[in-house]
Amino acid sequence: MSSSTTRVRMSPAERRKQLLEIGVRLLGTRSLDDLSIELLADEAGISRGLLYHYFGNKQAFHVAVVRKAVEDVYEITAPPGSGDPLTQLQASLGAYLDYVVDNHAGYLSLVRAASGGNEELRQIHADAQRALSDRLFDKARALDESTIIDTPATRLLARAWAALVEDAVLAWVEDPAGLSREELLARLAGALVPLVS
Amino acid sequence: MSSSTTRVRMSPAERRKQLLEIGVRLLGTRSLDDLSIELLADEAGISRGLLYHYFGNKQAFHVAVVRKAVEDVYEITAPPGSGDPLTQLQASLGAYLDYVVDNHAGYLSLVRAASGGNEELRQIHADAQRALSDRLFDKARALDESTIIDTPATRLLARAWAALVEDAVLAWVEDPAGLSREELLARLAGALVPLVS
């Protein structure tokens, strides 16, 4: 099936989804500033006008791409669902770390944009961090009520722990400082316990 | 001694220092965006022209104020120098927390500006976080080599822990979530141990 055939057969929703997937892939190796509608048009082989039709403007396009990337991270980092809580946590953390390694430029630019003046991206980033850390408590309820106590206080601390994880992983990707992937994961998981138990 | 007498007697360096102190105080209750040269001129009772003479422009003025604020934080959070490491750490953390409580608006705007596009403020914030977390290792060497091991890896993790502290304290100031000041400090100090020992 040639790409032009694909293009004709896809519904607008499918087409938009495909364009977002290309956008997420492109974001992996460049910053948001460098992720232009023009680049996506070239990569997808369609006109800029059609892309503006799908996304409106560059900011809306970035928001859509980042939302999709964040959904991907959430799916990729789902705990395996079996094993003790610490093993599951390390598996989830490992998937997150691998994602950041593979998509470093885009991830870093998201974090910077999110903390800077871009209110929409800040909100998406905050919601994602909250969703990821709140999921710790879902697994906890199912698996081990003594390791992770679910209170507003521990949720606050778990979200702060997510900031630690993000900071450590971004630093580690730039310079591992002699830490192996496994040791980093074990240390990060270990720091959660005194915060939420 | 009236303020006009004070003004006449001060050297340019003393005058600049006094203006920075006013700037830091003003920053405590407002964001960097709201900290204008005009406001400082009104507050200090001197002309805008003279302030531009001292600081150049708004960005340079902000940088000077933030540098001074960061020096203040570093001094205020110096560990007491006696007591076991965990007690000293909690004292230092407590001083940091109280500073953020007292200067919330300005501190929050610094963190946002630092992570956003403002490269100079980002660097000052990063240097400050590094200085604060590196100081953990100075005390450690003097006091307890078994609690805090000094390696590039533990320094990376201690800096990430500083991000956890900042995130948790900023969240706690907005909504304590049932956590007392002392419990928050104990949890934050407790999270450092598995990272650096």
How would you sum up this structure, described in words?
Two copies of one chain form a homodimer. The first copy, chain A, is an all-alpha fold. In chain A, helix 5 runs parallel beside helix 8. Chain A is elongated and about 55 Å long. The longest helix of chain A has 25 residues. Chain A has ten helices and no strands. Chains A and B meet through helix 7, helix 9 and helix 10 of A and helix 7, helix 9 and helix 10 of B.
Task: Give structural attributes.
homodimer; 197 residues; mainly alpha; Arc Repressor Mutant, subunit A; Tetracycline Repressor, domain 2; 2 domains
CATH architecture of the largest domain in chain A: Orthogonal Bundle
State the helix count of chain A. Answer: 10
Shape of chain A: elongated
Largest interface: A-B, 37 and 37 residues
Could you spell the SSE succession of chain A in H and E letters?
HHHHHHHHHH
The overall strand count of chain A is 0
Query: What is CATH's topology name of the largest domain in chain A?
Result: Tetracycline Repressor, domain 2
Low-confidence stretches of chain A: none
Q: Oligomerization state of this entry?
A: homodimer
Class of the largest domain in chain A in CATH?
Mainly Alpha
Largest sheet of chain A: none
What's the number of structural domains of chain A?
A: 2
Radius of gyration of chain A: 19 Å
Output the structural class of chain A: mainly alpha
Query: N-to-C terminal Cα separation of chain A, in Å?
Result: 54 Å
Helix content of chain A: over 70%
Estimate what percentage of residues of chain A fall within beta strands: under 5%
